[in-house]
Amino acid sequence: AAEPIVNLRTFSNRNFAIGCLLQFCIGIGLYGLTYIYPRYLAEVRGYSALMIGETMFVSGITMFLVAPLVGRLMVKLDMRYMIAFGLIVFAIGSYQMTWITRDYDFYELLVPQILRGVGMMFAMVPTNNIALGTLAPDRVKNASGLFNLMRNLGGAVGLAVINTVLNDRTDLHITRLQERVTWGNATATETLTMLMQKFQGLGDSTLMAMKQLSQIVHRQAVVMSFGDAFFLLTVFYLALSLLVTLLNKPASMTGGGDAH
To answer: Does the pLDDT of residue 22 top 50, yes or no?
Structure first.
């Protein structure tokens, strides 16, 4: 067609094709962590929607404050290095969460969320310009819509993969923990005895204690699965930072204004 709805010829531009791949992967982190953090706070910490919002606003504030700085640095620095820096910072923020426990609260999540916000802005904004900056002006409008689609598509795929990882790893950790929670395990026996004393006089204390212990095991398995998901994101984004070596430096900084 003379004017196709989606002009796939745009992918023949190297920077645009690699930029779309980066944007797809950035969408995984952008939407993926927006899913993981609230799920952890709700399921493990028992937070309400308001408390989750009060904890999660840190990343948004960070991105809001860092955006002007990124815009100024783009004029002075090689945008490829800025993208690599952003992806590595994001990976560091995810790595700090691999040690997550059920006691992680606002202050434990503060630095990882700040690193997430900084990393996202340093990776996302320069990617817009470097992907669209080498295109002819008449192709930018079509390419901009396609470029933004890749980020949303990455978020959708990322959510599905992350949710699958969380479910599978939770099942695996439950199985492993149940193998260790036996009568031969002193810690498990002491915990069960303590719970039985706690429920003494409230009914079948043994059954109630066993149910409580089962819930503790399940919660610990869930927490461990979150750590696994964060580790997976860490490795993924460290590897992704190497992709910027395939990008060509654009001749000008114009052309990326339509991508939001």
So the answer is: yes
Write the DSSP string, the chain.
Answer: --S-SS-GGGGGSHHHHHHHHHHHHHHHHHHHHHHHHHHHHHHTS---HHHHHHHHHHHHHHHHHHHHHHHHHHHHS-HHHHHHHHHHHHHHHHHHGGG--TT--HHHHHHHHHHHHHHHHHHHHHHHHHHHTTS-HHHHHHHHHHHHHHHHHHHHHHHHHHHHHHHHHHHHHHHHHHHH-STT-HHHHHHHHHHHHHTTTSS-HHHHHHHHHHHHHHHHHHHHHHHHHHHHHHHHHHHHGGGGGGPPPPS-S-S-TT--
Question: At residue 145, does pLDDT exceed 90?
Answer: no
Amino acid at residue number 245: T
Domain ranges in the chain are 8-163+233-246
Taken in order 245, 238, 126, 12, is the CA torsion positive or negative?
Answer: positive
> Could you read off the pLDDT of 169-216 as tens digits, one per residue?
999 999 888 787 776 677 777 777 777 777 666 667 777 777 877 888
What is the reported pTM? 0.85
CATH architecture of 8-163+233-246: Up-down Bundle (1.20)
Of 158, 153, 171, which Cα lies nearest the Cα of 36? 158
